[in-house]
Structures are given as C-alpha cells and as structure tokens.
Write a structure and sequence with these properties.
By secondary structure, the protein is mainly α. Among the domains are: 118 residues, no CATH class; 45 residues, no CATH class. It is 61% helix and 7% strand. Strand 7 and strand 8 form a beta hairpin. It is globular, with a radius of gyration of 33 Å. It is a multi-pass membrane protein.
Amino acid sequence: RHCTDIICCVIFIVVILGYIALGIVAWVHGDPRKVIYPTDSYGQFCGQKDTLNENKTILFYFNILKCASPVVLINLQCPTTQLCVSKCPDRFATYIDVQASYRYKPDQWNYFRQFCKPGFNNPRKSVAQVLRDEDCPSMIIPSRPFLKRCFPDFSTKNGVLTVANQTTFKDGRGKTRNVTDLREAANGINNVLDARSVGMKIFEDYAISWYWILIGLFIAMIVSLLFLVLLRFTAGVLFWIFIFGVIGIIGYGIWHCYWEYDHLKGIPGSDLTVYDIGFQTDFRVYLQLRQTWLAFMIILCVVEVIIILMLIFLRNRIRIAIALLKEGSRAIGYIMSTLFYPVVTFILIAICISYWAVTAVFLATSGEPMYKVMANQTLCKYANLTCDPETFNTTNVTKLCPGAQCTFAFYGGESLYHKYIFIFQLANAFVFLWLVNFAIALGQCTLAGAFASYYWASRKPADIPLWPLFSSFGRAIRYHTGSLAFGALILAIVQLIRVILEYLDHKLKGTQNSFTRFLLCCLKCCFWCLEKFLKFINRNAYIMIAIYGKNFCTSAKDAFFLLMRNVVRVAVLDKVTDFLLFLGKILVAGGVGVLAFFFFTQRIPVFAQEAPTLNYYWVPLLTVIIGSYLVAHGFFSVYAMCVDTLFLCFCEDLERNDGSTAKPYFMSASLHRILGKKELSPKKA
C-alpha cells in the first residue's frame, strides 16, 4: 500500500481549510437575526430582546398601497415608512378623522397613535405636515400578522373581495377607494395564506404525532435488522416472501381502492372530477371522489402487472441472484459490524448539511444596513440615493425635498467581501457537494475493503483479518483520501452543473423561447445520465481501490473494462440483486406503512384510544413510510455493496486464476456451484 492521488489529497485538505475559513468569516459578518426578525425603517429588529422593540414583534407599513405585492414586502423594501408594533390594526380609521375628533374621542387618538412614529403626540400639527413628514400613517385598515408583518385582512363575501366585510375605505387623503385597489397584493397573499394554513396544520400534526412517528421508524429498524440477520440462513425463502409480500400488499391496495370506489357509488358529489373541484387545502376532499380511487387502482394494477411479468421472465436469474445473496449473507455474518457503518455515513453527511446550512444563512445575512433617501416628491433628485441616518438632518436634502427621510432599505455593502457574496454562496454549495460525495465514497471504499478481505481469504473465516471494517477504514483514510476526493470532485462538478441548470430552468420558465427550453431540457437530461454513469463507475472504482490500492484513474479503468468483459453477468446478477433488495425495502416500508395507516386512522381497536386526532392523517403516515424506506435503504445498502464487491472479486478471480494447484480460486465452494461452472474447471496441460 502507498498513498494515491497525493496532489488531489493536498488540494482537498486546502479546500477544507478554506471552507472552515469561509465559515468563520461568514459567522463574523453574518447575523441570523436579519432572517428571524423583520427590520423597521431605522434598521432596528422587531421583537429583539433587551431593546425598545422587545414587545413589538410585528412590522407595520404606513401605506401598504405603495407595495406592489407580498413578495416585495417580504424580500425587498416597500417605499413607505415601516414601524415595529405590538399588534396589527383591527379597524378602519384615517388620520384626518382621528385628529378632528381627538378632543372628545381621546381613545381613538390613543389607539391610532400607537401606529405613529415613537414619541409623536402632537394632534395640533397640521395634517399636511404630518403626512409629509410621515409622522403617522394616513390610514389604517384591519390587518392580521403573517410572517411577522401586518397584511390586510382579506376575505371574500358572495364572491366579492372585502376587508372586514367592507368593500370601500378612506385613504386618508380625501378619497374613498375600493378594496379592489389592493387586489394585486390580495391575489398573491391569498395563495400564501392558504399555504400557511396548510403548513400550520401539518406542523400541528407533527407536534402531536412525533412520538408515534419515532416508534414507527424504530419498528422499521428492528424489522430491517431482523430480515438481514435471517438472510444469513434463509436468504432464498425470505426473498421469495419479500416478493410475494409486495405482491400481496399491492393486491390489498387494489382491493381497498376498488372497495372505496364501489362504496362511493351513488353518493352525491362523488362523481365530480378533480378538475371540477380545483385545488383544495383540505386534501380529504379528494378522497370523497370516485375518480381519485379509480386512478389509485389503475396505478396499482399497472405496478402489479409489471412486477409479475418481471418475475416470470427473470425467475431463473432471480434464483442465481438469491444464491449470490446467500454468499453475501455469509460474508456479513462474519463481519456483522458492517451493518452499522451506514450510521457513520449518516453522521458525516448530517455534519456536512448542518455546516452548509449554517454557513449559507450567515452568508445571506452578512450585509450591513443600507439606508436610502425616501421622498414623497417624485421629482426629488436625491430619491433612492444612499444616505447616512446620523448625518442626514445636517444635509440640504430635507430643505430641497421637504418630508424626505433616510430610511433602512436592505442589507448589503460596498466592500470586496460583500461584492462576492454570491461567489461565496456558490463555493459553499460546491464544497458541500464535494464533502457529501467524499463521505459516501469513504463508506463505499470501507465496506468494499472489509468484504474483499473476506473473499480473498484462503480459509474462511480463519484467514479473515481481525477487525476488518476498522482496518479497511484506516487504509482508506491513510492511503486513499486523495483518490476518494478525486472521484467525489468529478461527481460534485457534474452535480453543481445540474444545480445551475435547474436554477436557469426555473428562471426561464416563463420565457416563450422554445429553443432555449429544448436546449435546457437536453442539457439536464445529458447531465443526469452522466451523473448516473459516474456514480456507477466511482462505486466500482472504489472497490478496486480497496482491493489493489491503485489510484483512482487506474482503478476506474480496470473496473470499467472488467465489467465490460463480464457485461452479461453484470446485467443478470448485479441488477437483479438490486431489484430484489429494492423489493425488500418496499416490503419493509409498505408493511410499516400499512400498520401506520391502520393506527393513525384508528382502525386498530386495541390502540384506538391511543391514536392522536390529526388534521391530515397522511402527514405522519407519509413520514413513517418515507422514513422506513430510508432506514431500510441504509441497512440494505450494506448488502448491495457486499454483493457488488463479491461479484467484482469473483470476476477478477476468474481472470487471474484457473482453479489449478498453482492458481487456485479464492471463491467459496458454493460459488463454484452457483456461477460459471464450465469456467471453474482447472485447465489441462
């Protein structure tokens, strides 16, 4: 053994150090409070503890009519004064009316004054000067907080847009305006509010059912471990149970869909189509339609037919794959610690994701408060120019543009660091992809080294090294960090290009240029195929690195040509094995999912009282199903790597040895009977 791809190893270490430096710089300049708290016109955070705004958690806009849409309110700055308030207005009122009646209706004045600038309490000041200086808003309208900002309390009454059941309001400047003037903002906000309503219900469901979700995932882990342990002894029986279990689960799904479809027959409204009812925030509405259950039934029937046809045409190949899995089961039986290595990979990836997310947030909030001149006069030449709030009152701007103010605009900066924030974000994403792919590569190489030590042992298990998994991990880190980083780098570059293409596709989605859309679609397809191909090559290259200790390019070349010389075996054995393992994941996820379905829908009498009452039972159900699949995938991926390693070792064994006394095979006696019997006979002199 010797160190491989040293140059890439050095570059990888330098990049990691630079990544740490980038995180430190981002943490020094960033301030996550800019994301958590809204900012008023003075650059102060609303709701921040130990400040004057501690109890004022909501941002209020003086004249929301100046804001084009909710997107502008959230991401950009609206050209109107913004203040932190403790609550949103709950009534219509104008400054003109409140000022005229402040002597005999002081309660109205005191209520309105809380939406004026702090400290303003001069009802004798002329209305024109108050509105010019924006001491108070010209009007307030009933609002409700959303994303810690006051938005008009829109509703519809008999198909008419209203605010607090009114269709008109006074704008405080002598005009009566229709609520439809806020339509542009309303159209955007209603969709957001609907999404928020669904989001809040989903959050409530998670808060109520998280304990049972964890129990479901724990059951999935136990079932996966149990299956893997039993595979060592009864691989064939268990996998046929897997196959027929999946067929049975899908068959039950078909029967259930038909029962629901037939049960809804004759019920008023059940014959409506999904198109007729449109989008509904309550997804249970769709389950009252016969069309929904018919679509589910057709999909499940198609899946069932495909699986049955594949089993019929691949039955002989499946028997061969099961025999190879038995050999893999025996290898894992001798190296049981490999079953838990996916936990290490999960921890490494979780660390990468956490570091990337925190760094991205700090980079996004690295800007300094930027202030710009906001003038009521449209012809003011200083409007939208950068200003300093501390020295603004000493300039001539207020004289030349009466009522102009220096207000907070956004977070940014003119320094070299702030100019390259986007480049830093791109670098953050790229190094993140590199590190994640490296963590996956390290896991694959470690497992391959452990299973290769089993295969190449002359006497099994006597010649298997002590602690093969830890030894393999040490070899991968000590000698092959550069090779693993090289393979991960190639894959990260392709993935970054795919991310950029997805971003461009999202930005150009509204364009009418058909050629551009076609070109982007072709590029996305090509790079998707390239990524899949590179993952396949890298996986087998890491196996060759673990076996022979050569550099990445040599190992990738040797693995590729070795597989091409055994392409039929690759297609028949490797992919059929992957299919069987996939069926195992589906059975684990489906079985736990069916159990969760009966539990959350309170159909298990014993646990009916324990089941939580949910808004959407499919929220924890989908979480359990997806989580169970991922748990099963983690354990079954060890088997997949074992089979791939043994298969590659077997192909290499066939080419290097002939079964003679001088060149004996390293494969076990069972593999002699399973694969290539003719090729395994010793050559005659």
